[in-house]
Amino acid sequence: MNRVFKIAPSILSADFARLGEEIRRIEKAGADLIHFDVMDGHFVPNISIGIPVLKSIRAITRLPLDAHLMISQPERYVAAFAEAGADSISVHTEACHDLSAIAAQIRKTGARASIAINPETDPDRVLACAGELDMILVMSVHPGFAGQGFISDSLDKIRAIRRDLERRKLDLDVEIDGGIKADNIADAAEAGANVFVSGSGIFGHPDYLEIVCRMRDQIAGI
Ligand code: DX5
Ligand code: ZN
């Protein structure tokens, strides 16, 4: 298959009182991306972090920043997140009327365009505009909180998405987000995901280097 695998720690599970130090530790652990979860208390029943925090992180790391906007009306904020330094921006299918328009809006800022889908959402709408995207994000928990149990049905969805992309010779990243740990990352990779978000799976472990290496070992050779 020879797909490039990327591990994306979600800083939602980091210690925000020591965020700079946490970022140094995940850099040293060999993280490929920093997953940045934005919640507005409206699209999801929780509020997290936003533009000023992303901007501060941009100033202290060269790792790509992967902004996951779990917000209503994301089109109002795409430019601000790109300006603050997001390298990729995911918006939710469930929050957008016109996926092609928002994908074009994201790409116009220079960021990579991604559409996310919730566990209940049919992937057809996102697949219909896959040619205009850089990534599809498949939620494997209900968005809003870190530390939830993995919804294993999401593996079938990833399989169907990857199959469809391959049939159309579209080489997009497929990111899986929610409940990813060292013991299920290989299942996600086998199903066709190549970007793995992990919050509590990494930050809940005392040694980030050890857990990231263990995750990489699990997917090596897939
Ligand atoms: C959930 C967020 C996830 C979350 C992942 O709404 O989008 O990125 O932080 O955390 P874990 O890996 O603990 O499920
Ligand atoms: Zn996320």
Question: Quick summary of this structure?
Answer:
This protein is of the alpha/beta class and 222 residues long. It is 35% helix and 18% strand.
Tell me what the structure shows.
With 222 residues, this protein is α/β, with parallel strands linked by helices. It has a single domain, classed as Alpha-Beta Barrel (TIM Barrel), CATH 3.20.20.70. The chain is 35% helix and 18% strand. It has an 8-stranded parallel β-sheet. Helix 6 runs parallel beside helix 7. The N and C termini lie close together (7 Å). The mean pLDDT is 98. Zinc ion binds next to strand 2.
Write the layout of secondary structure elements.
Blueprint: E1 6-9, H1 19-28, E2 34-39, H2 51-58, E3 65-70, H3 78-84, E4 88-92, H4 99-108, E5 112-117, H5 124-128, E6 135-139, H6 154-167, E7 173-177, H7 185-191, E8 195-198, H8 200-203, H9 208-219
Parallel strand pairs: 1-8, 2-3, 3-4, 4-5, 5-6, 6-7, 7-8
Helix pairs in contact: 6-7
Bound molecules: D-xylitol-5-phosphate and zinc ion.
Residues 10, 12-13, 35, 37, 68, 141, 143-148, 177-180, 197-201 line the site of D-xylitol-5-phosphate (DX5).
